[in-house]
């Protein structure tokens, strides 16, 4: 017999494979209405526009038809899950194929440049193995505030220079380097993303660990990432690393667009003589890499002792709006905003 209870029972046979359980157990069905031969309900999905949603909707329709027969009037509306990130417009990953090229430096200064362009900005330090946001923003031992809500611990991001910050570094004793296994790293990232009251943000910048590991996969597969920026240095041999990072995001299963390439440490410039540029490692390498990959070239950041000093001092250089380095970051910010 077609009634609400029986429909709920039947829907328990509809499995959402990415989460390995049925759609009733996963609380994905809402506003169920059964009347005459009509069945209506909302199906709560992570992303409203995911083409995979159709597979589940069709699966549910087929299962209902198999049990209750043809001639049903079934209407399933996909609605997007309200999460801590539902008011975050863009998630942007700052990544590289290898370590030490300046991802954290680019992520921090880009966040500041975006904020200067009147954007609401959050910055997540997803580098579980070597967090740097607490140092670059001079957070010292400051911890995010935490409180209980509906039996769950939620956190408030730390705010500094107008940017909402969360870092795994806030949870880890810097004196005791942790050996994080893949699943622990993934669950730490999920906590930073999901259990934090981010509020409304135009941009969430994510400072990634080097390479192509669990964190990259988790971010790309479980979140709606708008795009990635790849950071490189001007040595020609760096192309293999750039290519590896780019290929990962382009992979069919992930399909994260690339905003483009940033060439860090592109040339040396004495801070007081910004017009003197010394191309120590090669000229135009970043631009050539971008052309080879067919992605936009977003800009060059010079090597200057001030960048390293200000990073260590917790006062990112981009805060000084007049510095030539800030202008480079302002340009990168603009090209991302204009995409
Ligand atoms: N343009 C630059 N000029 C001078 N020093 C720089 C520049 N960019 C980065 N550095 C310095 O190089 C070091 C590495 O930079 P950073 O931590 O940003 O790299 P990363 O890619 O995030 O490294 P990791 O892979 O370890 O996360 C830091 O000490 C930083 O201050
Ligand atoms: Mg880093």
Q: How are the secondary structure elements laid out?
A:
Layout (H helix, E strand, L loop, with lengths): L3 H8 L3 E2 L4 E2 L6 E7 L2 E8 L6 H17 L4 E8 L7 E8 L7 H14 L4 E5 L7 H4 L8 E5 L2 E5 L1 E3 L2 E5 L14 H13 L6 E7 L6 H9 L2 E8 L6 H12 L7 E11 L16 H9 L3 E7 L1 H9 L10 H14 L2
Helix pairs in contact: 3-10, 5-6
Adenosine-5'-triphosphate binds next to helix 3, strand 14, strand 15 and helix 9.
How many beta-strand runs? 15
Query: Which cofactors or ions or other ligands sit in this model?
Result: adenosine-5'-triphosphate, magnesium ion
CATH topology of the largest domain: Rossmann fold
What is the topology, as strand order, of the major beta sheet?
A: 10-11-7-12-6-13-14-15
Q: Any idea what the radius of gyration is?
A: 23 Å
- CATH C-level name of the largest domain: Alpha Beta
Distance between the termini: 53 Å
CATH architecture of the largest domain: 3-Layer(aba) Sandwich
Total helix count? 10
Class by SSE composition:
alpha/beta
> Helical content, roughly?
25-40%
Largest sheet: 8 strands, mixed
Describe the model:
The chain folds into two domains: 11-80, GMP Synthetase, Chain A, domain 3 (2-Layer Sandwich); 88-337, 3-Layer(aba) Sandwich (Rossmann fold). The chain has ten helices and 15 strands. It starts with a helix and ends with a helix. The chain is elongated and about 80 Å long. The model has no long low-confidence stretch (mean pLDDT 90). α3 (103-116) crosses α10 and α5 (182-194) packs across α6 (214-222). It has helices at 4-11, 52-68, 103-116, 133-136, 182-194, 214-222, 239-250, 285-293, 305-313, 324-337, and strands at 15-16, 21-22, 29-35, 38-45, 73-80, 88-95, 121-125, 145-149, 152-156, 158-160, 163-167, 201-207, 225-232, 258-268, 297-303. The protein has an eight-stranded mixed β-sheet, sandwiched between helices. It is α/β, with parallel strands linked by helices and 339 residues long. The structure holds adenosine-5'-triphosphate and magnesium ion (MG). Adenosine-5'-triphosphate binds at residues 96, 99-105, 127, 130, 132, 210, 264-265, 301, 303-304, 307-308, 311.
């Amino acid at each position: 017999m077609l009634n609400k209870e029986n429909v709920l029972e039947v829907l328990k046979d509809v499995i959402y494979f990415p989460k390995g359980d049925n759609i009733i157990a996963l609380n994905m069905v809402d506003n169920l209405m059964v009347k005459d031969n009509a069945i209506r309900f909302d199906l709560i999905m992570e992303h409203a526009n995911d083409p995979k949603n159709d597979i589940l909707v069709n699966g549910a329709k087929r299962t209902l038809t198999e049990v209750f027969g043809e001639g049903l009037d079934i209407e399933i509306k996909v609605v997007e899950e309200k999460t801590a990130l539902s008011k975050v417009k863009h998630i942007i990953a700052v990544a590289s194929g290898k370590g030490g090229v300046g991802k954290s430096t680019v992520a921090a200064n880009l966040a500041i440049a975006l904020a200067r362009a009147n954007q609401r900005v959050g910055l997540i330090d997803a580098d579980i193995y070597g967090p740097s946001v607490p140092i670059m923003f001079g957070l010292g031992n400051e911890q995010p505030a935490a409180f209980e809500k509906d039996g769950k611990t939620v956190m408030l991001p730390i705010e500094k220079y107008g940017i909402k910050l969360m870092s795994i570094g806030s949870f880890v004793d810097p004196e005791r380097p942790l050996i994080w296994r893949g699943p622990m790293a993934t669950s730490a990232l999920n906590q930073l993303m999901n259990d934090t009251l981010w509020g409304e943000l135009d941009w969430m910048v994510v400072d990634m660990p080097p390479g192509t590991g669990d964190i990259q996969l988790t971010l790309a597969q479980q979140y709606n990432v708008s795009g990635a920026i790849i950071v490189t240095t001007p040595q020609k041999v760096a192309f293999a690393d750039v290519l590896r990072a780019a290929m990962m995001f382009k992979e069919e299963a992930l399909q994260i667009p690339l905003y483009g390439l940033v060439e860090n440490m592109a040339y040396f410039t004495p801070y007081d003589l910004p017009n003197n540029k010394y191309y120590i490692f090669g000229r135009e390498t970043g631009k050539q890499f971008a052309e080879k990959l067919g992605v936009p070239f977003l800009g060059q950041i010079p090597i200057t002792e001030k960048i390293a000093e200000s990073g260590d001092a917790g006062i990112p250089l981009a805060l000084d709006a007049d510095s030539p380095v800030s202008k480079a970051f302002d340009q990168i910010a603009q090209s991302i905003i204009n995409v």
